[in-house]
Give the backbone structure.
Amino acid sequence: VQLQEYGGATVQAGGSLRLTCLGSHAPHCMAWLRQIPGREREAVATIHTSGGPTYSSDDIKGRFTISRDNDRNSMYLQMNSLKPEDSAMYFCAAKWFGRCSVNTNEEGYQYWGKGTQVTVAS
């Protein structure tokens, strides 16, 4: 499975972006993670083909929406009310089996994209 992210850009605080992850296939569990330089990568949101999404915090849940289109092997992250602290490299990851949650170890993801940079200017 190959994954490719699209949609990263530089936006002003308060703005919106929609990230897309396009895959050669759509494994059951797909996730968005992000990494700020010098910090550990963190899960942002996950979505399963048959289950509901999970988000890393209430703040993220209130501003971001994860979705997927299995017919198009795609996953999306709609990000609204962006803050400077949302600036990071955003990665798409996926796996066929295992628990699908932001609380699972990222080592369980079998497939990764190369990332797309999101920069939020204050």
